Amino acid sequence: MKIVLKIGGSLLYRDDSVVLNDELIKQYVNIIKSLSQQSHQLIIVTGGGKLARQLIKVGIELKVNHTFQDVLGVEASRIHAMLFIGALSDIAYRDVPRSFNEVRTAISSDKIIVLGGLQPGQSTNAVASLIAEFWDADLIVNLSDVDKVYDKDPDKHPDAKAYDKLSIDDFYNIIVKQEESPGRYPLYDRVGAEILKRSRLKIVFLNGRKPENIEKAIKGENVGTIVC
Amino acid sequence: MKIVLKIGGSLLYRDDSVVLNDELIKQYVNIIKSLSQQSHQLIIVTGGGKLARQLIKVGIELKVNHTFQDVLGVEASRIHAMLFIGALSDIAYRDVPRSFNEVRTAISSDKIIVLGGLQPGQSTNAVASLIAEFWDADLIVNLSDVDKVYDKDPDKHPDAKAYDKLSIDDFYNIIVKQEESPGRYPLYDRVGAEILKRSRLKIVFLNGRKPENIEKAIKGENVGTIVC
Amino acid sequence: MKIVLKIGGSLLYRDDSVVLNDELIKQYVNIIKSLSQQSHQLIIVTGGGKLARQLIKVGIELKVNHTFQDVLGVEASRIHAMLFIGALSDIAYRDVPRSFNEVRTAISSDKIIVLGGLQPGQSTNAVASLIAEFWDADLIVNLSDVDKVYDKDPDKHPDAKAYDKLSIDDFYNIIVKQEESPGRYPLYDRVGAEILKRSRLKIVFLNGRKPENIEKAIKGENVGTIVC
Amino acid sequence: MKIVLKIGGSLLYRDDSVVLNDELIKQYVNIIKSLSQQSHQLIIVTGGGKLARQLIKVGIELKVNHTFQDVLGVEASRIHAMLFIGALSDIAYRDVPRSFNEVRTAISSDKIIVLGGLQPGQSTNAVASLIAEFWDADLIVNLSDVDKVYDKDPDKHPDAKAYDKLSIDDFYNIIVKQEESPGRYPLYDRVGAEILKRSRLKIVFLNGRKPENIEKAIKGENVGTIVC
Amino acid sequence: MKIVLKIGGSLLYRDDSVVLNDELIKQYVNIIKSLSQQSHQLIIVTGGGKLARQLIKVGIELKVNHTFQDVLGVEASRIHAMLFIGALSDIAYRDVPRSFNEVRTAISSDKIIVLGGLQPGQSTNAVASLIAEFWDADLIVNLSDVDKVYDKDPDKHPDAKAYDKLSIDDFYNIIVKQEESPGRYPLYDRVGAEILKRSRLKIVFLNGRKPENIEKAIKGENVGTIVC
Amino acid sequence: MKIVLKIGGSLLYRDDSVVLNDELIKQYVNIIKSLSQQSHQLIIVTGGGKLARQLIKVGIELKVNHTFQDVLGVEASRIHAMLFIGALSDIAYRDVPRSFNEVRTAISSDKIIVLGGLQPGQSTNAVASLIAEFWDADLIVNLSDVDKVYDKDPDKHPDAKAYDKLSIDDFYNIIVKQEESPGRYPLYDRVGAEILKRSRLKIVFLNGRKPENIEKAIKGENVGTIVC
What we know:
9 strands, 8 helices, homohexamer
């Protein structure tokens, strides 16, 4: 099975400080190794998380323009990708592709590719969608801080409804309703969702704090929200 | 003045066939040379036009996936960029940047940069916005088939209202109301418009079939729609 | 068997307009897939065809120099290569190599490589010869509009003699006698033929309008002209 | 004057947390702009600091090998370089060179180049020396946490002697005496010092916490330790 | 004036051994510096000489194929280019372009570019012609072992006629008459001569053992053979 | 077994002239092919030898700076790598990686990688150590002119002691005691030895003039000095 695994940047850090969550990362590494041994093919996309946020904050202090703020976020996400490549050793393509062209070259090897963002003005969710579409992936596994897709923000609305399963069109409409706030992306962004929709890609949303759910979801168990 | 000149792909072709409009292109080349002599700095972004559309059509016949359809459109837009580079000779950066990283390298020269698209999943309008933001451009000149920005599609609505001037926020709302149809982009797409909005970039929309208006617009004459 | 398949650009278009011949392209794609399943190794070289010619014509209008006219032709041939890569999906190396160095990198993967021209001043026939020599290919299959190699232009000379088989030295002498007209190449050009000769490479000339002949020729049937 | 400015990574962070010292960075940016206006030519080399240290620590947890630990440190130093490039805008070469070859290309522009490390197994001090030698720089300005070069570690030895001026040979001998502890580099490392020695490069050591000293040192005032 | 200076590889070596002729090289370096100060723009193309020949000889022993033999020759010519770049320091583009694409990037700087060969199957003469055409050069200065262009090989024919001046068409015919022997190129090769002819480029042939003639030829003195 | 084979540059030349030792090179090629058939994985690092020395000598004549002298040495070592790649044909990665980043890309193929130096200021021994560490190699085989590691220079000290086996720490101390003379490296240099030490890499020192010992050493026979 060809799987794109999107690891949200927030999962890579502990609490509120810029301290990497090495234990969770280690678990992800083991799961990736295990999936690879089951002869799944994998592309991993890592987010920028708190490191991105800190860099952007300092960038704003330095009057860095918006594109460059995005560049800093992209670089942060690549640092996370590099950590995974180091830990995965020989089974990973040993560099972080830095443009769509480099992804194309990397894909021609049989290795696990790990990358962060590709370009300013584009979220790592959009990258995950685009690469899944280009690669004709069977499944995107999206890890974030939340258990399921809700119809509205569950933190603000106690009556928010959680979905076990959603059609892509319904999912797209939920995403569109969410406002894209500048510099920060919601559960999934509109550009990424449009690609899912136009190519009818299958995506599963999981809580990345429960990494044991990744393999379950790949086997078809319903442990988050399935969109297809 | 730092100017990003976006030339819509449809302008580069005659009527309905895939025949390049060499006369109009020649006029653009002369205007670009003239602007350069007035010591304006220029980055040119060319669209994909009918060549893109034909390639995508054949791509669909060949069951090429959506990302790859976009890739074909991007390649078409680059061919157009190459034509301009050939015609501009020594005053142009002599290759078409093919990724944001290559744009960064090219920008460090003092030449006129000409490029097409950068990545699948991204319109050449979004490219123009992004590069204008990155480069801290003073003005984007957007050439297309229409004279002005309208509040709705003037072909369908005889009562559509044309604007001489628009705030970025109002412009953004108009764009959002337009539907983004897959494979084809409206006057400007949402991703490009969001960048305009977040960085308060100034953009002028002109009818590219009246190339004499380009220099007028740069001098501040109101010959299309000014958004700022 | 290591096969270089050269697809003449003229085959990729219908009649006189710049309209791609999607049906024939689809047949080529299927043949390439089938050859790959029979565990042949393949490198495909595509020509520039009518798109190249149109771009060069406009380039001349724009007073683009000769090298740049060649550049435009090379870009056209790469667009065709990209179409094939899109259609071949996972079995193809997913980018078009743009220099001999990039060919070297690509060759180290086990994928089908598809490329167009490499450099101005060099035909795609020369590219096919050079890559065949570098790669120690067993066979070049050259597809063009004509059925066989003739001793003179069969359109002008009704008594032109067609060959089923030719020695490389005789073939070389025929090519040398043909005049290389600027901007356009004959059946094969001298530079390409010299490489065939110096390395005693085997090449088969076939009419690409009868794609069923490709597999026959690879199996050793005499359906065009064999040069070795 | 051709100046290589080495900014030690530790200066870029506040106290003990991984929080960037945006105020000091802002001051450096202003000084660099001012030096550039005085028509000095500049190459900036940034260290990896606490971000490097945190990444390496997590890398060790993940059993990443030593080369890869260095890679993580190099990536951290590049993030810092990117921040400066963003803040310097048009006067900086707009990408971080990632290999010696990329430095060579970048040097051919007239922009300020900002880079971090180049390769695992090599400190950013060695990079500063190497680039100064390659570029025939007139001066290296080395900013760190200490005021001057001492004959031994002043934290451990209250009788450590501070130098206002040192010959390169004496400086080299001091560096050699210091032990190079793995993963961390002393004031300057041996490889970097050897390059200084073999090409008789001039270097000034300053306390980077007093950024006003940079311009003084360039004007020839004795505000740290001059080695030549 | 835009000048392409082609330095034949044989000039770079003494007698029969593989020992570089440092004295002559030093003279060339001084002439290039002087021409640059007179604000001529320069691109230098160096040949492969005896180093190329030795490498190819060993390559043949190792059963390296013809393309790879050419690759070895190209690498040898690049080594010579690198020597010049080192000696020219800041006024030279600091890397050897290794493909036509890299030439395009390099040309966008204002530096002196020095390169060797670009591709197997192509002589450094062809490279000089191609770059002169692409760059719209005013003059190619071709340095070799002979004083002038002769109508036949002067070593074999005592009655060979030397030309002071030749039309491009006559020159082309002389070159065509010469046989291109594999692995070694005559005074100029056919591919290079065709480019001269199609773009009516001006070229001067000089004896490189008398380097004082270079500046004379550029000033218009008749010290070799002028072809235009 | 993952083996890094370091071939000292001096082995590649006969006696005192710059004439390649094609016989010995041919033997190395055969051994590499044979090891590859026994499914060992190989990375080959070649030194610069007499070609490097000659180029550096001429470079000094031309007042080329130290970094550039190193660059010339690196280029020489790459020429040697290219010879091996040509001779190994399909089993080798077909280009010489020129930076650590390019090594990373190359390593993701399953081919034998052959490279020379990577950067000025770094010996090919350091390259061998670094790549062995990055690649988690099982063994480095170091071929030079001497039979074993001695405690001091055996040419100067008749009582020098040869080792069959050495701990890494003892080996490191011997290397440190040797003086690193500028422009030339001893048996192994300190930077390379430090990497061996920090990662406890296993290395065997053999006399490369007796190539039959390579396979013996890999099988565990004691034919030189084992350091681990």
